[in-house]
Amino acid sequence: QVQLVESGGGLVQAGGSLRLSCAASLGTSSVTHMGWFRQAPGKEREFVATITISGNSRYYARSVRGRFTISTNNAKNTVFLQMNSLKPEDTAVYYCAADRPRFGVGPGLMKISDYDYWGQGTQVTVSS
User: Fold this and answer.
1) Residue-by-residue DSSP string for the chain
2) What is the rounded average pLDDT of the residues 23-48?
């Protein structure tokens, strides 16, 4: 069973930066894609960014493109989300997600239903 643990959230002023981390405990399992989603109060969970575990393909939501960067570490068991030029509208709980390997799927998985494993979420609050 894959377990995902996010960290790095917090309170920051508009224009500031935060770096989120998601550590994956894979056990005997493997994943192919990892992604970040976010959910603001009263809104649906939405896609933010995704990366193939090899690090070769990355996709971003239009709202964060050019400000956020998704990456993995060399061991391929941690995914990061570097968030720069933060805006108050970026305030949300940020969730890490991962999928089970499936033949012919991806890259660029942007739907909640594309993912099988989820972290507990980390709060990001951007003050104006």
Assistant:
1) --EEEEE--EEEETT--EEEEEEEE-TT---SEEEEEEE-TTS--EEEEEEETTS--EEE-TTTTTTEEEEE-TTSSEEEEEE-S--GGG-EEEEEEE----TT--S---SGGG-SEE---EEEEEE-
2) 92
